Amino acid sequence: MVLDRLKSIFGGEGKGKEVEEEREGKREKLSLEEVRKRIADRKSHPLQEIEKDYHPLLEKVSNIRGKIESLNKDLVGAEPGGEVHPNIYKSAEEGKRLLTDKVERAVGKMKAPQDPTWKDLLDLNESLQEAVNLLQNARVSHGRQVGAVFENEVSRLGRLADSLQSVSGELDDSLRKGKTRLGDLEETMEKIKERENLLGRKNELKEKLDEFRGKKAEVEGELDKERESLASLEKSERFEELEEVKDRIEKLTRKKEEIRKRIGSELLRAKALRVSWRTGL
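Above: the chain sequence. Below: its structure as tokens.
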């Protein structure tokens, strides 16, 4: 319902051609045209829909990225803490080379923009998901063989990868909510157009009804005159004129009945319009 949707977007209440917006504890009455302009403005600035969400998420991404990058550098130059069987060491070194290469590629996909646009956030969301997949692949493919020698580093990498996955999910949810709000704005714009069309049709019907009622009153006035003339003729026994007057009365009566039926038809249309109006609200 359009007014419920408007209240959910702007707060406050709406009636007729106006809606009230809550601003700093005060209610401001807006016309539908003003609502249309404000919705258009919000649609052109989609970041406003998630402004409270994305700043802390970008900070988290930057923080996790820095920690993973630092850990990866440490892992590249890491040496065993004690004696290790040559075969295990060789396997761990080869796995470490492959793992750190994938981690480095993942880090490259985690750079958070400073002053992002909506598109920047969409791109980052996609890049973070790719980074999460790279880290998961690195852990699954090489985590065990590298962890056999560098257990602490692999364990830390796992925790950081899990944190990144969590933040990536939060950003994705936030963007989805933003898209939903934008979709709601689009739908509300369509509802406003429908409401304005209903208002226009309502005014047209009112004008037609007024016109028909005027014609009905005019015909009724003519009928009254003819009846008076008929009564006068009946008293004077001027029979030829009497028949003519009767014919005119019959014609006017038929005309009145036609107008009455048209008024009834327009009233039915108006009733249907009110039902449609209330349904739209």
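The chain has three domains: 2-44, 51-189, 198-280.
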